[in-house]
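Loading example: each entry is read as three labelled lines plus one structure line.
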Amino acid sequence: MSTYHRPVSNTWWLKRKSYILFMIRELTSVFVAGYCIFLLVLVYKLTQGADAYGNFMAALKSPISVALHLITLIFVLYHTITWFNLTPKILVLYRGEERIPQGLVAGTFYVGWVVVSVIVAWLVLGA
Amino acid sequence: MAETMQLEIFRYRPEKESVPSFQTYEVPFHEDWVVLDAINHIKDEIDGTLSYRWSCQMGVCGSCGMMVNGVPKLSCAAFLKDYHPNKIRIEPLTGFPVERDLIFEMDDFMTKLKEMQPYIIRKEGEERSLEEGEYIQSPAELAHFKQYSMCINCMLCYAACPVYALDSTFAGPAAIALGQRYNMDSRDQGRDARQEVIASHDGIWECTFVGECSAVCPKHVDPAAAIQRAKVSSTVDWFKDVLIPWGKKK
Amino acid sequence: MAKSNEPIWWSLFSAGGMVAAMIFPILIIITGILVPFGLASDDPLNFERIHTAVTQNIYVKLIFFIVITLPLFHWAHRFRFTLVDVGLKSMSTLISILCYGGAIAGTIASAIVFWNI
């Protein structure tokens, strides 16, 4: 008399909302890599002289560039939010018997994010 | 005319069939009934051949885990009124081989629990004899691992874990949480012994932090957090081993 | 069961994930919206300014290099597991080689570009 092994579908992640959201979170890494490549090309154009670089920067105004940036931004923001929200699971801190509230841990990262963003914006745009 | 509900239940009788099927039963609907009440009603009044596990009916024994509309639940904790008037689909927990109807084979899970060495391990020469009295532990020290000691071995977390479904060599949420329960117990000195299992390829490193294990846990053990924390401590260990190889204690 | 060497990839994944989470959103807003639409002061990304900053300051190069390469390792680790999670476990060695190899290739390419500025 045999036990029955139920087959597992490769589309298991489509079956529940939580699994779909998980898969979207994982796919944000593709957009992260995409932006890395973009930054690398930007630096490469710097080595190719003012004209090449200037053309590259002008192309940023094209609808395709803006659209790709916006889509990438949405996915990268999803990465940021899911990333910070998971930090309290990893960073478990106690004051005596009391656990430091999870909202406080995640909140610290969000505050840090705003600070870093302001600094980066100031350095890249203004300084 | 009393209200009723339909339960579509997974059937598998190895002596009769080689593939499972579903059988639909009509049960009375009561506001205070849980799925287990409905299944007990089926067994008592409609079809005595239905096989399933249950015991305490109050969410502490961990026996009655099953898939309710594709979500792992304790059947004693899933209220009919949350699904009424729709049909409910009942299946054995995902990821485990099925013996009969809703009864699945839990041998793999039992093996994994044992492999975790789930008991206080003291170093050679550091055990206390009975005359020396108890190991003293403060409430703060207890707080560090108490959550992980609340596991009732119901295996809902394994059923929720897609990694385990795809590859049953994965140690799994409950086993790793149990390992952490002892690793974080101030009385225990056995972390190194458990690391052979926890820090292996089939241990924490198969986990992709889907997080569903913690979402379905009826006791709020949060095995996902236990696993990620083990990743951090195992990583620190690894760097120590690589960067300070002479610092190894034997 | 031997202890795994995953920690090296997981550390890079975590570091890259933190860099991407903290720094990428503002950068994307800068290169995708502020600069193209002229919303930032006076063409701040012009060739002279950026070229000078990168060539004259070793720290700018270093930070730029880290911002480009660490998130590549974040992608490599996460994407490797995504492919395994959709059922490609039988090809896991090949997948690992392609993913981490890709990140390493990107790192080498970045090092070459920065060396040549």
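The CA atoms of residues 211 and 224 of chain B lie 6 Å apart.
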